[in-house]
C-alpha cells in the first residue's frame, strides 16, 4: 500500500491530452477522492456538505430534504447517513443510480414542470433545500457567473415555496458569492445568510456556498377591501 505522502503517476499517458493527464493525476493524488472511495461515497463532493454541516449544523433532525443537482448522489448519501429516516427527493439532468430512501427525478430543474413534481414527490414542506447545481461553463467568466446565478435564484425561489418555517437553503455560487440583490432577498426571507468555502472545495476552484438559515415563512397574502 502506498504511503499518504507518495504521489501516484499515470502508468501510460499515450493518446491523452495534457488537460486529461492533469485531471487524472489530480484525482489519483486527491486525499478526498481516496477518502470517498474508502468510506463509500460516490464523490469527493460529499465532504463539502459534511464540512458545511459541521460548521452550520443544519442537517441533524431533517425529515424532508430536496437535493437539486443530485448526481452522482454524494450529498444525498450524506443526508441519509446523518438522518437515516429522512425522505430525500433529488433532481438532475444526468442519470443517478438509486439511493435507499431517495426519489430521483431525471430532468432539468429549470423545466416548468419540475417544481410541482418535486413538491408532489416530497409530500410535505422541506426542512432543507440543497443545491450543488452549476451551469455548464463556456469559458467566459461573466457569462458563466450569470448562468450559475440564474440557477441559484431559481433554487432560492423554489426554496421559498417549499421550505417550512425555520428551514435552510444551501446553494453553490461562484467566487464573490451571491449577487447583492440575491443576498438582500435571502436576508429578507431568512434569519441568517452566510458565505463559506469548505476545505474540501479545491483551492483553485471558484466555487463558494451560500447558507441561508431560519426561513421566516411565506407572508400572508394581503386582504383587500371587499374580499371578506
- The structure class reads alpha/beta
- How do the helices and strands follow one another from N- to C-terminus? HHHEHEEHEHEHEE
The tally of structural domains comes to 1
**Cα separation of the termini:** 75 Å
User: How many extended strands?
Assistant: 7
Strand portion, in percent? 15-25%
The helicity comes to 25-40%
In CATH, the architecture is 3-Layer(aba) Sandwich
- Give the spatial strand order of the biggest sheet: 3-2-1-4-5-7-6
CATH class: Alpha Beta
Which residue ranges are poorly predicted, with pLDDT under 50 across at least 5 consecutive positions?
A: 1-8, 20-25
Binding site for S-adenosyl-L-methionine: 73, 75, 92, 108, 132
Active site: 172 (proton acceptor)
Function: Specifically methylates the uridine in position 2552 of 23S rRNA at the 2'-O position of the ribose in the fully assembled 50S ribosomal subunit.
Protein name: Ribosomal RNA large subunit methyltransferase E
Descriptive notes:
Helices cover 36% and strands 21% of the residues. With 228 residues, the protein is an alpha/beta fold. It has a single domain (43-215), classed as Rossmann fold (3-Layer(aba) Sandwich). The protein has a seven-stranded mixed β-sheet with strand order 3-2-1-4-5-7-6, sandwiched between helices. Strand 1 (64-68), helix 4 and strand 2 form a beta-alpha-beta unit. Helix 3 packs across helix 4. The longest helix is centred in the middle third of the chain and has 22 residues, at 141-162. The model is unreliable at 1-8 and 20-25 (pLDDT under 50).
Amino acid at each position: 500500500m502506498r504511503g499518504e505522502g507518495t504521489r501516484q503517476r499515470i502508468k501510460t499517458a499515450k493518446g491523452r491530452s495534457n488537460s486529461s493527464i492533469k485531471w487524472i493525476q489530480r484525482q489519483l493524488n486527491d486525499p478526498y477522492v481516496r477518502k470517498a472511495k474508502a468510506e463509500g461515497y460516490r464523490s469527493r463532493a460529499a465532504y463539502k456538505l459534511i464540512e458545511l454541516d459541521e460548521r452550520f449544523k443544519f442537517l441533524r433532525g431533517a425529515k424532508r430534504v430536496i437535493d437539486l443537482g443530485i448526481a452522482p448522489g454524494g450529498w444525498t448519501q450524506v443526508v441519509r447517513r446523518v438522518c437515516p429516516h429522512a425522505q430525500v427527493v433529488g433532481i438532475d439532468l444526468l442519470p443517478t443510480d438509486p439511493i435507499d430512501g431517495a426519489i430521483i427525478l431525471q430532468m432539468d430543474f429549470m423545466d416548468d414542470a419540475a417544481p410541482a413534481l418535486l413538491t408532489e414527490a416530497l409530500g410535505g414542506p422541506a426542512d432543507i433545500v440543497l443545491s450543488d447545481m452549476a451551469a455548464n461553463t463556456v469559458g467566459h467568466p461573466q457569462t458563466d457567473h450569470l448562468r450559475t446565478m440564474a440557477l441559484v435564484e431559481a433554487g432560492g425561489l423554489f426554496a421559498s415555496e417549499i421550505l417550512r418555517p425555520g428551514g435552510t437553503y444551501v446553494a453553490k455560487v461562484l467566487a464573490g458569492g451571491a449577487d447583492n440583490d440575491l443576498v438582500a432577498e435571502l436576508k429578507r426571507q431568512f434569519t441568517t445568510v452566510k458565505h463559506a468555502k469548505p476545505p474540501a472545495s479545491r483551492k483553485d476552484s471558484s466555487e463558494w456556498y451560500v447558507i441561508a438559515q431560519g426561513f421566516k415563512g411565506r407572508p400572508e397574502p394581503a386582504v383587500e377591501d371587499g374580499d371578506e
